[in-house]
Design brief:
This protein has 178 residues and is an alpha/beta fold. The protein has one domain: 3-Layer(aba) Sandwich (Rossmann fold). It is built from seven helices and five strands. Strands 3-2-1-4-5 form a five-stranded parallel beta sheet, with helices on both faces. The longest helix has 19 residues. 30% of the residues are buried.
């Protein structure tokens, strides 16, 4: 699927992925249809107070990406970043940013981000992929809240992410009781 100038078409799908959800994996898998290579940029994003460390988020993502199958996984790289998104896109040699949209409420924020990125570099396109019907309502924030309160999160995340969340909540509970 190389672009006419024969350079591979590289896209960046950025996020915190705290935790990675089935919705994220759906967008990642579908994004591989429009790019030759997809860089999943895992933002450090200390301001959000992530539940998992950067290393844990990368590991969880890698396991889910590996489950997409060897053909797709071979075209996906997971790379942490802590700089301006547009600078990260340049560092990766990418020509587009891939973003997922779940609902109209996402659009306003994503539209502003795309506009800011276009202002910083109008050669970088932002491509929006609509969440599939079965994933439209999933958000990492809701998954964490449901999991923290003991609800079943198995429909929203992979089995290994569910286990990691249960273990993390147990660790946090132990930390609070000491």
């Amino acid at each position: 699927m190389s672009s006419p100038d024969l350079r591979p078409r590289i896209g960046v799908y950025p996020g915190t992925f705290d935790p990675v959800t089935n919705g994220h994996i759906d967008i990642i898998g579908r994004a591989t249809r429009i790019v030759d290579e997809l860089v999943v940029g895992v933002a450090v994003n200390i301001g959000k107070g992530p539940l998992f460390s950067l290393e844990q988020r990368v590991e969880l993502l890698q396991a889910d990406v590996d489950n997409l199958g060897p053909e797709k996984a071979a075209r996906i790289r997971i790379v942490p970043f802590d700089n301006l998104l547009i600078d990260f896109v340049h560092q990766q040699g990418a020509s587009m940013v891939v973003r997922g949209l779940r609902a109209v409420s996402d659009f306003e924020y994503e539209f502003q981000m795309a506009s800011m990125n276009a202002r910083l570099d109008n050669k970088i396109e932002t491509v929006f992929l609509m969440a599939s019907e079965r994933n439209q309502f999933i958000s990492s924030r809701f998954v964490k809240e449901i999991g923290r309160l003991g609800g079943d999160i198995g429909h929203f995340v992979s089995a290994h992410v569910k286990t990691a969340l249960i273990n993390r909540f147990a660790e946090l509970g132990d930390e609070e009781s000491t």
